[in-house]
Fold each of these.
Amino acid sequence: MKELIEITENLAKIIGQMETQRKNLGTFLRETNSLTDLELTDEILENKLIIPITEDGPSNFKVAGVDGGLLKKSFHGIDLMLLKACGVVFSYEDSKLANTEYYPDSMPTPEPRIIMDPFNDIEFEVNSNIERQIKEVQTAIETIEKFEPDILFMHGSVIPHYTFIPEKGTLLSENYKRMIETYSKLFDTVKKKKTVLAGVIEDSRGLRFCDILNNFLFIHNNPKFPPEMKIVLTRTKDSNLLSYALQKNERSLVFPYSAQAAQHPILKEFGDNKIFTFYLKTAEFDRPVRIDFLGDKGVIDKANFISSITLKMVGHEGYGMPSVIIEADQRAKLEENELEMVYQDILNKTGNIPGLSEQRRNQRPF
């Protein structure tokens, strides 16, 4: 026990030292922001690191949020999934919420799926994630087509989340292709309807902002910067650093999602559709959120528009997510017993067949 206490004391000391270094770096960025104009490049799209945002913006607008839910379970011969997605539309008049609508309705019916393909555990996990994203994105497309909101927020990024790219010709690759096609249709839809598409990432592990600082800003703009701070940047996530650098109603500069979009495993699938990113401090006592958005012309204006709308929709100083996404999340949430009810209903109709047997790991007598 004594050894364990000593280990935790040392760990706490290391963590505290690193956090102090991050705080010092964040403070430095704030202090130098007003004194330094950055040189614009393909990656640095604004001449300041920190941009103040007002909540003025439009007073009459329509904003949508989409989120999805997924439950899944593997049995001896099949895999069972339950999917649900919901679109929520808030209409504002004079900056006040005037109306709320839902798509397909306020309490969407979960969609059961039986997966007969012989996926291994990892493939089943990836396939489930692909199916969930297809469901969410298709719901977003239909929400835009029906309500034509000024802006639509996804819960998560506006490009697919991936773990690996399936090999061509496999069963998984066909579903992956469907997912890419659905996202491409979403991008085409928002362009036709002139809806701004943005994704709010709740717990980002992004490193791009720190990479840009490390690779460009210190070299070109501040050669006297303490060398140990470069080490801090290589060990820090963007949101951790920006928790110290940003204050409420401020955002970071806008930057491309990837330095090499043509070589990025996902972005290269979408051709000329460009994705940009920034961080926004929406609540006094919460970390900044990351926002990814589809941009072409007027990228900075879009970032300011997204920021002003987002700030209008955060009503809790300890939780910085916009309310339309919170509502969509609650409507799309699935309870564990819902999957069990579907399973029992199928079992009652088929009888106790081997394919529906529980896996042994769930039936251990000890």
Amino acid sequence: MTTSNTINQSILKLAIPNIVTNITVPLLGLVDLALMGQLGNPVYIGAIAIGSIIFNIIYSSFNFLRMGSTGFTAQAYGAKQKDEISLVLIRSLLVALGLAISVILFQYPIQWISFKILGGSEDVRLLAQEYFYIRIWAAPATIGLYAFFGWFLGVQNAKVPMIIALVINVVNILLNFLFVNGFGMTSDGVAIATVIAQYSGLFLAIYFLLSKYKDYVKKFSLKIVLQTKAITRFFRVNTDIFIRTLLLLLTLAFFTNTSAKHGDDILAINTLLFQFFFIFSYFADGFAFAGEALTGKAYGANNRGMLKKTITKLFYWGWGAAFLTSFAYAIGINTFMGIMTNNSELLLMARDYNIWVILIPITSTGAFIWDGIYVGVTASKEMRNAMIISSLLVFLPAYYLTSNHWGNDALWFALNTFMVARTLLMWAMWQRIKGRKPITAYSK
């Protein structure tokens, strides 16, 4: 019988490495912004902001590979379907390769559309374009790592992704300092460092696969890899997750684009403050990722008791982390902001919006945890529908109904409202999903 202590231990065993893995991502973003911020010109911060949001949309919209790979792998792991565990990785890597080639081939129309949507001043746009054309060459490594990370997590191993992420970010940070402080480069140096670091991570992922999971490195005929039933379900679930992720990223892009319309100073302020949201989001995702692996395993094994207990414990841990984070932000946000930039005018203006940053861990925790649960049980359609409603029918109205009176505060209000709506919708939908019988996702 699975006890509460056993579930807590399983959650922490997966969550802690995932938190370490995830927290390195915003920390790297903070280093990038700090290096640009110390140059004293908000244009450099804006260039990194615009360039980064483009790649967040491009690459993170492909995050369905990680999420879908985790859900399918965890369910196969719970059902003890060894061949299917291997096949999930093969299918994910093949899709990753195809997506990477497409991104590189269509880089010119991608950048044209992106800058038309995101805007920004002429100085910001020129620097951001330079950043874009360098970083685009990291596509094969970045997208391939999504497939690897999801697969490793699906087989209940969060340590390998943690090691890979740490290596990527250490390499990236060291090269950032070398290129910016040593060679006098600006946003172009940050982009080159990112490309080199991503490929170092991809090679390390391949090494871990061949050394630790060689039993799963198998040859299958193309007929088995492309088995109709499995491929259909693979693409259906991943298409739903793709739509969900794209809407999320477009919502965040709207936030950045609207910030840019208020001028370079507001764009810089919101970019710096938004790093606190990213810090918490990756922290909360540590528990969400643990939820993906554990709920997927329980769902695949058709163990409803363990599934229910796991969900309950995930929310205990998630809410605890949220209140601690909000408290830390309340007492330290001004100090952290001072580390990221020495522009006293920006620091003074940013204080008007501190309250939204303090609130966001509390308003967003439920959405992150539910995401993990839905990925684990591959309830992709419901997760997609919740995002459609929250982004189009909650976020946008919340902003436009308040923007004339609240200005920049309206953006932060809409973001918090958006996260609350996602939580409530997924909670309501779960009342139907929890009684659903598992759908066999494995090749027969």
